[in-house]
Each structure stands twice: as structure tokens, then as C-alpha cells.
Request: fold
Amino acid sequence: MSTKATYAIYLGIIAGLAALGLLGDRFMVYMGMRVMLLAIFALGYNLLLGRTGLLSFGHGALYACGSYSMALVNLHLTQDPLLGILAGVAMAALFSLIVGFFCVRNTEIYFAMLTLAFGMMIFSLIWNLREITGGDDGLVGISRGSVFGLPIVKDGQFYFLVLFFFGLTLWLVHRIRSSAFGLVLAGIRENHQRTSFAGIPVKRYRLAAFVVSGMFAGLAGSLGAMLQYNTDPFSAHWSHSAEPVLVSLIGGLQTFSGPLAGSVVFVVLREIIERYTQNWMLWFGIILLAIIMGLRGGVMGGLEKRLRQRAATRKGGE
Amino acid sequence: MLESIVHVCLAGLSQGMFIWLVASGLTLIFGVLGVLNFAHGAFYMLGAYFCYTVLAALGDNFWLGLIFGPLFVCAVGFLVERYFLRYVYHLDLPYQLLLTFAFVLIFDDLVKIVWGAGSISSPTVPGLGGSVSIMGRMFPTYSLFIIAVGPLVALGLWAALERTWAGRIIRAASSDREMAAALGAKVPWIFTGVFVFGVWLGALGGGLAVPYVGLLTPGMGESIVIEAFVVAVIGGLGSLKGAFFGALIIGLLSSFGTRFLPSFDMFLTFILMALVLLWRPQGFFGEASR
Reply:
């Protein structure tokens, strides 16, 4: 696909989402925001998993770093949402730098376990430091304030702030993927030894990828805290880190649009299942099993394969 | 002061032995199959619930529960390996981890459906329910029993792997799958067997935990499996020796942490892990970087 066509598709998506924000009812707007937040989280996460080939189970904790920093700034310092978000992203970057420093020396399963353990460390910190983080209650009473004089108190108004950051994420992630930096990351995924023979400091690149994806997690976290007006300690839990993995997997691991499609499927599916049963985890587990056993390229990967097969048979027929 | 330290040590040892029972199955499965089993905590939980059900059905006999409960969990483990896990060994890591994660979700919710979402208080063990006096203070007999069981399991595992014919074949299959298969070892069945045995160890840990933790809750395996992960990292992934000593260290550390730094006990564990990793990224007994 040419770059122009890609940009046209993304502009189309954003225009469609803007129309949803203007025309949709409250429920649709709320769902739209949840999809976009999850997509920000997953797009950033996929820079690490799909692009660099590192599986992290600590990103839930980085998401929570964003939420809690945003909430603390909001409750104690200023109600300016942009400053809160900035604090959330900065804190997530700081934590991912520290955690990443320990983790990027290892790969594969070791990396996954280390990020899991450090993520749970942040979880236990949030859980235990009651005076600061509110313990199991989380922090409540976040106010949204206004951006440059425009109020974002109502969901219909806040929607457009989320949309702005969603568009920004889309653009940034796209740029990162096609930059020299992004290509080096793909090189590390394919063969880290060769990449290091080419004179590239692999560990430093891994760390950079970890920090960048952690910052997107922090962004999603700080916006999520504003969306829900509170913070949830369980967002730091390792099972929350599995969410972007599931989303990327549903959508397709190594595609750029995978996390987008996956986020829509995930949020809608969860809403539908929760409407009929309380045991949404059970059903999600079953769906996950089905995806892993049967449909491994994800929705977008499967679609691409189908199209390619069709093109191939057509060529063969000629 | 001295008797207080002795008691904290004993509590730490019994805690460490529980972590060891879970970490041993996890490590064995990882060492042989190369799969990190997230569902191990769920098997621990299932072990506890099945033991509880069996012991309640057989007239409050704890020992019968401990014998037969884990066998049911083994059957579940067999189905998981035979019909699911077997098909992902050749796939990328995310698929393997997510497959076991899917089973965590499924088992956690199934337990809620079958046994209810609330917690169940568990019975005490006849004969081991009391406490004995150690240096003038009472210490639960059951914890002493656990401290004895841990090394026995370790010894049994060591003997089975190092001193028997089956253990030799398992070690061969884990170090080189293809060569072992070429020499006639039925590698798929060895893998199934090792997985089921690892699940049995986890379920046994869960069954032993029934009187110890006092309450059965869905998701009870979660914190212990995280600790088992930390133990496996510290000891060196795949090393049973490392898992044993790692579990002892973590158990003692968290026990001392609970006593002297109550709000940071879990935190201490992770600080230790970070320090060990700085010093030896592959863990105490792990092989040097591949």
C-alpha cells in the first residue's frame, strides 16, 4: 500500500470517529473512547511485541504509572489536563527506563518473566502505599477541567481530546515504524546477532523501544484515569498487561492495523459477553484458545492471507 | 529476641516450602518442555479445591483428599497438554504464554461457577492441627510438617531424575529432543508425562495449602505463582536446585519482611530479584547467556 493511500485510510478512520463523536449517543461515544484508549495502549505495545519481538507483561504497570501520576497531579497540583497527561507520560517513561534497564539484558521468556515481576512490584507498591495511592480503592475524584479554555467535562467534549491523542498516536507510531529506528527494531526481531554485527547497540535499541511503548501505555493510562474519574489498582496487575497482547493477537501481530481492528473487536466483544453472562473471563479464555489453536494470523492477518490466496489463484488461472 | 528470630525463620521456611512445591513443578515443566506455564497457579488453586471437595466427600479425611484430589487435577493437566499445549511447542513464545494464560482465565471462572465466588474456610488436619512449644512459644505443628515435606519432595525429584532409567530418558529428551526421539524415546509421551507430573506437584502444593491458608478463594494461586516466577528467575530458569534455594531465600526474606518491614514485604522480594539480576543475569544456577 502506498503511503498516500495509508494516510487516506487513517484520515478516513479519524473522520469517521469524529462523526461518531458528533452524532453518536452517549453510549456510542463512551464505547468509542474505550476503543481508542485501548488502541493507543495496543499500538504502542505492538512497537515492542510486533516490531521488536519482545513480549512484556509489565505494561499494565506502566499504564498505571500514567493513571496514578495523572491523578496525583490532578488532585494535588493543577487541574490542567495537559499537564496531568504530561506528568503521566513522563512518569511512565521514567519507570520504563528503570524497569527496562534490568529487563532488556534478557530476551524471550526471561524478558517476559522479568517484566512480569517488575510490573507486580509496581502493583504491590500501589497496593501498599495507601496514603499516596489510596490502596485498593484507588484515587477518586479526578476532574477534567478544560484545555485552552475549551471545557472537556462532558463525555461528548472529552471525546475529542481522546480523538486528538488517538490521531497523534496513530501518526507517531506510523512514523516510528517507517523510520530508521523502527527498521532497526525489526532487524533485532528477525536476527539480533546479525543486527549487533552491523554495529548496532541492540540492548540500547531494545531499551528505547521499551521506553517508547511504555510512554504510550502511560498516555493511555492518564487518559483512562480521566475517562473513569478514578484510578484502578488492578490496572497495574499483570493480567491487564495481557490485554494489549490479546488485542494485537486478535488483530494480527505484525500488522500496523492489527491493534486497531483488535481493539474494536475486544471492546465490543467484551460488552456483548458481559451483557449475557457474568463469566466474561471464561468466554474470553475460550475465544483466546480458539484464536491460538485456529486463527493465528489474527483478523487482519487472516484477511491479508485470504486476499493474497485469491490473487495467487487468479494469477494461476491466467 | 532470639526466640522471635527462630520463629520468624521457621515461618519463613514453611512459606518457602510452599513456594518450592509450586516452583518445582513450574521449573520441571520449563526445563523439559521449554514452556512457561502461567496456568501453574491455576493448577495450584484447582488442587486446593479438589482436595477440599474430596476430603469433604470422604468424611473429612484430609489424607485421602491429599491423595485423590491432585489426581483429578492431573487428569485436567493431561487434557490441557494432550489436546492444546502439544500443538504450540513449535510456535512463537506469545502463543505459548497466551495459551496457558487462556487456561488461567478459564479455570478461575470455572472455579467461581462450581464452588462459588466467595471464600471457603478449610478444615484443620487431625493430629497436626495443634501447635508445639519451641523455645517457649507456640508454633503450628502443620507448618513443621510442611518444612519436612519440602525437602522430601526435593530429594524424591532428585533421585527420580538422576538415579532412575525414566529420569535419564527425561533428561535426554530435555537436552536434545530430536536425538532422544531418534534413539527411540517416545518424546511426545515423555512431555505429556512430565507436564502431568509437574501439574501434580502444583496441585499437591495446593492441597497442602488447604489447612495452611485457612481460606480457599478463586485466584488464590495468583500471588504464589508470581513468587514462584521470581524464585525461578533468581535460581536460574529450569534449575530445580536453583528453585529450591531460591524458594528458601524468598520465604525467609518475606517472613522477615512481614515481621520487621510490614508494608514492604512483597517489595523486598523484588528488590532482591533486581540485585541478583544485576549480579548474575542468568540467576544463581542458570547457564550462562545463550
User: Anything to note?
Assistant: The longest strand of chain B covers residues 131-134. The CA atoms of residues 26 and 171 of chain B lie 16 Å apart. Chain B has one domain: 2-117+134-279.
